[in-house]
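ok so for the tutorial part 2 we go from a plain amino acid sequence to predicted structure tokens. step 1 is just haveing the sequence, like this:
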Amino acid sequence: MSYPNSDNENNPQEKDSELKAQKEIMLKRVLSSDARLRLNNVRMVKPDLANLVENYLLNLTGQGKITGQISDEQLKQILLSTQQPKRDFKINRI
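step 2 — the prediction. this is what the tokens look like for a chain of 94 residues:
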């Protein structure tokens, strides 16, 4: 007879928190302090965009394509390139 282990119940939550901690450490290495502040501000308004940019940066770091830190200006360019272009609709009345 096996008894449920309380450690097994918390494992997914612990793994999730460990992954978040590792992600934050990697981002601290890659982003300058101003860039991290900007990304946190973007996360408050558009969390999906922030996650997309974070994953993009982590993938580039894993591939070794990022050397040094990304400045605030470089992060602005990345954010602009990842955002969907706004569509303007023009309605003509006949």
